[in-house]
């Protein structure tokens, strides 16, 4: 049995080297299992050997840390980039494709928690839960009386922009409320019994609520523009748990300030961590600091995805959450 743990020269097999790439403001506490099986090096903490960058094969990109062509140029032997988020707009997919570098993301690790959060934001906007909380804390209930009525979720027409792993989980949660689900995606998905629209404008025109959870690409940048907001209407609600730049934020602010939208629940923004301050005063807007995916359970699931992808890569097996550059 002992010979399985040693090479022929009786030395312990070297753990595969994996480079951690992160901004100083982002960190991820990697599990003991990952550190036991892989030699993780974080240049912000550890001093790498002189030839490390020239020879490293795998890179873990933490959060939105940019993986640009300049970053990739420093790593001539790189063969895989492992993203730790569901989105991959911070990774230069074209350059990775050109060089034959595989890219993975968080897969479905965050899907259920983000879906829960999206529904929570929606209920909060419709029923004014956060606003009612502020009303009580400000001592206004005994002075100004009952808080204004909220709105029912059941029977609402909900349009989902991006019926992927997150969007489908959102739909699954809203169906029991009695919501009527429709969607738009890159292609129709006949496995789901929901109405499909070819574009987001038609989806918005036939929805009371628009939930944004698609990937951010050049094609989807500001896909929710002023025309889409106008189609949704003055009673419409926008929930964004995707990326801030999916929505034209300046137009969204204008529509909300002018009362041309019914409300919004926003977990993501154009210029995080900075949020348009005029939104702070709007009681029909719920704001959240990009935490929809953040639970202990989702972090554990993410570690599982990273471990599985690294193990598959170094053993030349299919990757669990391979990102295709369409």
UniProtKB/TrEMBL annotation:
<keyword id="KW-0520">NAD</keyword>
<dbReference type="GO" id="GO:0005829">
    <property type="term" value="C:cytosol"/>
</dbReference>
<dbReference type="GO" id="GO:0051287">
    <property type="term" value="F:NAD binding"/>
</dbReference>
<dbReference type="Pfam" id="PF00389">
    <property type="entry name" value="2-Hacid_dh"/>
</dbReference>
<dbReference type="GO" id="GO:0009853">
    <property type="term" value="P:photorespiration"/>
</dbReference>
<feature type="domain" description="D-isomer specific 2-hydroxyacid dehydrogenase NAD-binding">
    <location>
        <begin position="119"/>
        <end position="292"/>
    </location>
</feature>
<dbReference type="GO" id="GO:0030267">
    <property type="term" value="F:glyoxylate reductase (NADPH) activity"/>
</dbReference>
<keyword id="KW-0521">NADP</keyword>
<dbReference type="InterPro" id="IPR050223">
    <property type="entry name" value="D-isomer_2-hydroxyacid_DH"/>
</dbReference>
<dbReference type="GO" id="GO:0016618">
    <property type="term" value="F:hydroxypyruvate reductase [NAD(P)H] activity"/>
</dbReference>
<dbReference type="InterPro" id="IPR036291">
    <property type="entry name" value="NAD(P)-bd_dom_sf"/>
</dbReference>
<feature type="domain" description="D-isomer specific 2-hydroxyacid dehydrogenase catalytic">
    <location>
        <begin position="53"/>
        <end position="323"/>
    </location>
</feature>
<dbReference type="InterPro" id="IPR006139">
    <property type="entry name" value="D-isomer_2_OHA_DH_cat_dom"/>
</dbReference>
<protein>
    <recommendedName>
        <fullName>glyoxylate reductase (NADP(+))</fullName>
        <ecNumber>1.1.1.79</ecNumber>
    </recommendedName>
</protein>
<comment type="similarity">
    <text>Belongs to the D-isomer specific 2-hydroxyacid dehydrogenase family.</text>
</comment>
<keyword id="KW-0560">Oxidoreductase</keyword>
<dbReference type="Pfam" id="PF02826">
    <property type="entry name" value="2-Hacid_dh_C"/>
</dbReference>
<dbReference type="InterPro" id="IPR006140">
    <property type="entry name" value="D-isomer_DH_NAD-bd"/>
</dbReference>
């Amino acid at each position: 049995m002992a010979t399985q743990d040693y090479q022929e020269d009786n030395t312990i097999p070297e753990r595969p080297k994996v480079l951690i790439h992160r901004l100083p403001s982002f960190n991820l506490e990697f599990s003991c299992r990952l550190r036991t099986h892989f030699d993780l090096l974080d240049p912000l903490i550890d001093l790498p050997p002189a030839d490390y960058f020239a020879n490293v094969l795998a890179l873990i990109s933490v959060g939105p840390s940019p993986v640009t062509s300049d970053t990739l140029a420093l790593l001539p032997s790189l063969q895989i980039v492992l993203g730790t988020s569901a989105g991959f707009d911070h990774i230069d997919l074209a350059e990775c494709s050109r060089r034959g570098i595989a890219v993975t993301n968080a897969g479905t690790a965050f899907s259920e928690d983000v879906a829960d959060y999206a529904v929570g934001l929606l209920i909060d906007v419709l029923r004014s839960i956060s606003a009612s909380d502020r009303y009580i804390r400000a001592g206004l209930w005994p002075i100004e009386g009952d808080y204004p009525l909220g709105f029912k979720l059941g029977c609402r027409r909900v349009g989902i922009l991006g019926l992927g792993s997150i969007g489908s989980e959102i739909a699954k949660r809203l169906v029991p409320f009695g919501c009527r689900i429709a969607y738009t995606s890159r292609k129709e998905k006949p496995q789901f019994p929901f109405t499909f629209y070819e574009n987001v404008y038609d989806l918005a025109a036939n929805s009371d609520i628009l939930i944004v959870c698609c990937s951010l690409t050049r094609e989807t940048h500001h896909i929710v523009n002023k025309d889409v907001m106008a189609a949704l209407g003055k009673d419409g609600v926008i929930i964004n748990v995707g990326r801030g730049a999916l929505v034209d934020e300046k137009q969204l602010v204008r529509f909300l300030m002018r009362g041309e939208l019914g409300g919004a629940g926003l977990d993501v923004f154009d210029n995080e961590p900075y949020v348009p301050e005029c939104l702070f005063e709007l009681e029909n807007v719920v704001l959240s600091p990009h935490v929809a995916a953040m639970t202990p359970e989702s972090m554990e699931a993410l570690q599982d995805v990273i471990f599985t992808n690294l193990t598959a890569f170094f053993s030349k097996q299919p990757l669990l959450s391979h990102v295709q550059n369409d």
